[in-house]
Every structure is written in structure tokens, then in C-alpha cells.
């Protein structure tokens, strides 16, 4: 049996436990580091808009003056994903 080390995408901690399946049936993981700001994460997201790198890019493009439709087209995600992420970050 091969053991694959799982690392938290936020704090790079290896103190990770399984946290049950997501709604799509993918395994969720939880970081046990008390200082980590992230609760749970999935290793392989099916939708590109859920990736943390894409969420950072949405905020960056909004700060540089890109519109919602332009951001969605460049990142190849839904405009509603862009809007909801901007609302979470209070940039709308």
C-alpha cells in the first residue's frame, strides 16, 4: 500500500484528518492546525471556480478594473461565480 502525504493548502501542515465525503462524493479533509484559517478542503476540485488560485485571481482582476464578464471569460468560469466571490470579499 502506498501512502500519500496530504498537505493543507493554506498552512502547509501535514496534520490532516478525513472529514467525510462532499456532496459530489469526493473525500474532504480537515486541517487540525489550530492557527489554520481554512476548515476543510478537497484535493481535486471538479469545477475550476472552486480552486483557491482562481479565487485569488478573481480578486486581483477586480482590483485592476476588469469587469465581471471579462473576468469570467478570461478565467473560463461562470459570471455568477465571479459575483459570489466578489461579494464574499466585499469588492462589489
TrEMBL record:
One Pfam family this sequence matches? HTH_Tnp_IS1
Residue stretches making up the Insertion element IS1 protein InsA helix-turn-helix domain: 45-88
Keywords tagged on the record: DNA recombination, Transposition
Q: Which InterPro entries match?
A: InsA_HTH_dom, InsA_N_dom_Znf, IS1_transposase_InsA
Please report the stretch or stretches of sequence annotated as the InsA N-terminal zinc ribbon domain: 6-33
By sequence similarity, the record places it as follows: Belongs to the IS1 elements InsA family.
- What protein name applies here? Transposase
Amino acid at each position: 500500500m502506498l501512502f500519500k502525504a496530504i498537505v493543507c493548502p493554506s498552512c502547509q501542515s501535514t496534520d490532516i484528518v478525513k472529514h467525510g465525503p462532499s456532496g459530489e462524493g469526493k473525500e474532504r479533509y480537515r486541517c487540525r492546525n489550530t492557527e489554520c484559517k481554512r476548515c476543510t478542503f478537497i484535493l481535486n476540485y471538479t469545477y475550476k471556480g472552486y480552486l483557491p488560485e482562481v479565487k485569488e485571481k478573481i480578486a486581483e482582476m477586480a482590483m485592476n478594473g476588469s469587469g465581471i464578464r471579462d473576468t469570467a471569460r478570461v478565467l473560463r468560469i461562470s459570471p455568477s461565480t465571479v459575483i459570489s466571490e466578489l461579494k464574499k470579499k466585499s469588492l462589489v
